[in-house]
Amino acid sequence: MSNEIGNIIPNIFERKRILMNSGIQRNPFFILNVNVRDDRKKIVQLTEEKSLEFDHYLCQKARSDLTHPRNRLSAELAWLSGVSPGKASLLIEQLLSDPMSIRSESGIPVLAHINLLASVFYAIDIKDDSEDVSEFILQFVYLIDQIKIEDVMRDINEDRLISGFPKILKQEQIVEVLAEQNQYYKTVIKDGLNRLDPLSLIKVITSIVSKSTNDGEIHAPSLIDELIDSYEIECKEFLQEEEENITQLIKVAKESKIANKNLIGPILDKLETVVMNWSRVIYPILISAKSRGLENESINKIAYLLLHCAAELGTTDCVNRINFLVKGVYSNSNEIMQLIQKIEEEKQNEEIEFEREISYQAEIGLINKTILSISPDGIIWKNQHYALDAITRIRWGGVKNSINGIPTGTNYTIAFGDNNSEAIINLRRREIYSTFIDKLWRAVGVRLSIDLLHSLKGGKEFKWGNSIIKDDGITIYKTKFFGGSELISCSWDQVNVWSSDGNFCIGMKNSKNTFVTLSYANESNIHVLERVIDYAFTKPEMKLLSDVL
Q: What pLDDT band is residue 259 in, cutting at 50, 70 and 90?
């Protein structure tokens, strides 16, 4: 694979470049103009000559490095070992005059080629195309993976046989120094990347990790893993800032459900934009984690926050939007994708169960029969359709009839509507009435109860009959005997509730004449209010109705 990449010379790389202070140019062999086959005497001689032209200390340091066994090995491993002196000189000239052309060279020992390419990274700048840079990095990294210690040891010892320096006897010596050299290779790649603009840098990182891992399906070369680890550390501050922005937008979205549902859509738009910008940075981190069989918990926590937000917002549109967003960002996280699959399966099962629980159809009327039906698609009555989510009010009740004290049946009323209209159904068959209101409650009443609690928690007040319902209590308009009225405010622990003659009643515990009656059949959502208060009263030490949320 490396040979194929090495034969590519992108047009963008053909412009004139100046190479300065590269690894090759800082190598003791380059500083003294010494080749790997020169003996100690020649090294000393060239040191004296170069000291007259260049920095004396630098030249003496270079001489010491080339004559000290341990330091010499470091210089050799960073040089062109295994390349003849003549060929080495030509390659150095080529590197300095046209750095990028080194990429297409062939027939060079692997380590020598790597060291030349390492210096080419010093020529990368902001003008370079991101795809060209990513191909270059991959060529470089795959070459590093081709290093064979026995070949390197052979090349160095062949040169040392001529120069008179002692042979390397153990491969461990080379392995130890090469480990240090690998850190240098990682550094030159990082420095090259840091000369790109931020967007190009992210594109390069994403490209090299995607291609080297087959989008997370196989292990990457170790140097790629190290680069991604460094990238994650350097992105940490940015990621934390964006995660805070995401967390804040999630909080605002949840609050908007209570305060103003119309704001949820624009907030989700903003949330999607921020998450997608954040995802471009974390995408290579997730791919790398997948290739290593790992999960990045710090990044995955955002997925959990988003999915929890979707569950709290509850509406199908919000859930679908957020789930789609999370799937797009976390497609390379097995943990998150499995979680989403589980959530969607549970949601599908809930929808099937919900459909089973609420679906019902009946004929109303003795002669001119009219179909009344309810399902997840909505309620149909007299060819008028009401979507379940659009229904904002429900009511029902019955009035018993009698003649001369003899019961003659009951007239039942069921009504439901949106903000614009209301459907009213009058019937006499108890089984249809009972079945339908049970379905209606499951389909709409539960949602209206939750909406009421959220509205109360948000500070909204509701007027029902001669009362005002608040989260922390009720205000009752009490009519005085001689005219006029007064307002009596009570906390919830100061009142009792009961049903009487088709009415829901709320009254003060210590004042029998201070109460309000609310008709189940004639006033909207009294059943909703009753269920909310009854449920809240089951909670010990309840102060606010919304405490049950």
A: low
